[in-house]
Structure formats: structure tokens, C-alpha cells
Design brief:
Number of domains: 1
CATH architecture: Roll
Structural class: alpha+beta
CATH topology: Thiol Ester Dehydrase, Chain A
Distance between the termini: 24 Å
Largest sheet: 5 strands, antiparallel
Order of helices and strands: EHHHHEEEEH
Number of helices: 5
Strand content: 25-35%
Radius of gyration: 18 Å
Length: 158
């Protein structure tokens, strides 16, 4: 495993099988309701009585909000400020457990594949399995996807 922080890495620094854990986000009722009002106004995200009567049994965060929390953690702790070139997309998102007010979330990312581009020598793709975990260690969401990363200038030239 490289001793270079993920935020300072180039494509060549990522290794298949590496695991990174980071982040700490306390989910509040206020952010759940605010997000829901703006982007996902389903009753179990907005209203205590409706949420209590739902299959969730109480207020829960939108899955899209949990994706946003994960993205923020990735930007703060994992995505390289030196080499990131964006993402071609995600292959899979799964919401496995509800996220509730008071949950404390953290991320775990496992690099699953590192592949140099065959057509563009200045870059490669780093694929990863991303997990969002709550304070009990339960995986509440998974995302499989990847990102384009620049190669070190000397590596790209050679």
C-alpha cells in the first residue's frame, strides 16, 4: 500500500485491493427534511406522522441524500486533487438500510480495478466498491463505480 494520501495520488499510485476508511458525518433531522423539501419530497422524508405510519416506522433520509454525503466524503478524503478527471458514472447504487436522524456515517472504499487507458496514454480508470457505514458498522449504502485519473506527466510521456 502506498503511503501517499489518496488526495495527492496520481493514477499510478492506486493499487487493486487497497482499502481506505474515512469521514464522519452526523445526520440531522434538519438536513433530512431540508433535502427532502428540495429534492425528494416523499412523506417518510418530511413528516413525522407519515414516516411513523410507513414501513420505515420513522423519519428516514433520502437515498439520494446519502449519495450526496458519500460524495462529500470522497471529495474531502479520497478523490485526488492532483489527478481527478471526473467519472464515467456508477454501475450500481444500493440502499441497504435506512439512514435516520442521529446516525453517524463514515465511508470505506476498496479499489477493485486499476486500468490504464488503451487510447489515451495520459489517463486511466480506477474502479472502486464504496460503502457507507453507520455508527454500528452496518453498511447502509453501496456504490460501485470509478473515476478517470491523470497519469504522472513523466509516465504519460513514456
Amino acid at each position: 500500500m502506498s503511503n501517499v494520501s489518496p488526495r495527492d495520488r496520481w493514477f499510478e499510485d492506486y493499487r487493486e485491493g487497497e482499502v481506505f476508511e474515512f469521514g464522519d458525518h452526523l445526520v440531522t433531522e434538519e438536513e433530512i427534511v431540508e433535502f427532502a423539501r428540495r429534492y425528494d419530497p416523499q412523506p417518510f422524508h418530511l413528516d413525522h406522522a407519515a414516516a411513523a405510519a410507513s414501513h420505515f416506522g420513522g423519519l428516514v433520509a433520502s437515498g439520494w441524500m446519502t449519495c450526496g454525503i458519500m460524495m462529500r466524503m470522497l471529495c474531502d478524503h479520497f478523490i485526488s486533487r492532483e489527478a481527478s478527471m471526473g467519472s464515467p458514472g456508477v454501475d450500481q447504487v444500493r440502499w441497504l438500510k435506512p439512514v435516520r436522524p442521529g446516525d453517524r456515517l463514515r465511508a470505506r472504499v476498496r479499489v477493485t480495478k486499476v486500468r490504464a487507458s488503451e487510447t489515451r496514454p495520459d489517463r486511466g480508470i480506477v474502479s472502486a466498491q464504496q460503502e457507507l457505514l453507520n455508527q454500528d458498522g452496518d453498511v447502509v449504502m453501496t456504490i460501485a463505480g470509478g473515476g478517470f485519473y491523470r497519469r504522472r506527466p513523466a509516465a504519460a510521456a513514456g
